[in-house]
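Record type: monomer structure entry
Structure origin: computed from sequence
Chain ID: A
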Amino acid sequence: MNKVKKSLDAAAGDVFNDKEELKQRVLYGGRKPKRRNPFPIVASAIVLAAIVLITFNVLQNGSTSTNGSTYKIDETLYDLMLQSERLDQGDSDELRYRVFQSILEIDSVIDYAASQGYKEDREEIDTIINEQQQSFFNDFTEEQLKSVKKAQMDNFGYSYDQYFKVILTYTQRHTNVMNWLQRNKPNDETTQRQILDAFQKEHQQVITAFTEKKSIPYLTGKFRTQTLDGVVASADQGQVLLVLGLEPKDYEGLSTDEIIDLAYESAWFNFSESFDDIQPDMHIEVTFDPLSYAITQRERPTRFHDIIKWNEYEK
């Protein structure tokens, strides 16, 4: 979830930290170049989650669905997300699956926090968002406002009103729940995978009914694992740091933090067994569960706990 938060914070930052850049980007249809990411499964969830609106209001709203479950999937939200992502990626079975999974991942965390005692203050969140929306539009002339609103719809497929009411509202909701989880950490390192699997099992009939209605394929087996190859920059007591874009000569004499800053991408892996054969400066390929990071983790880079296999290769 720390990856999701980073993406959401970045989306909010486009509006409030660099408004002039946003104006130019929307007016002229420009898009920021996307950096290659070695975690496509996680990355897709992050990007898609930036336009997620959670409709999981337990009991308070009295929403019901299949088999008595109080979980309801917002069909309008799903359609909006799919429309937005199609602008860059086109339509595909994989995209529909990724969009839906991103909703389930975020919903599962909200549900998990609620089960631990978290109570959301929606009135406070709405007040914050309304103030930010008013502040944003105050600096536009009437002509500029008309232009950016039209360009926003043409270029990105959703309006500024949807941005504030959906994206930024969810950003604040996510920030609040993650802050609460940081203050009320579970005794064990509960992972996103554990939370998601339990959530899907509990609401299986609701989820199945929605996937059938929207023709979303079952691709869990395909995306359950991810493979990453790179150089072992550190290996100590089962903790392995894998970096991309560097060779051993590039980080000689540097601290771990300096190596992470220098690397193109990096990840920590917790190996519970078969660790003794992994040595610093080796080139290895690791197969792992991309959702096996602790739900309360905030350190960078991400630390993955479920390692399926690894092997050394020649550079």
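Annotation 1: Confidence is low (pLDDT under 50) at residues 2-65.
Annotation 2: The radius of gyration is 21 Å.
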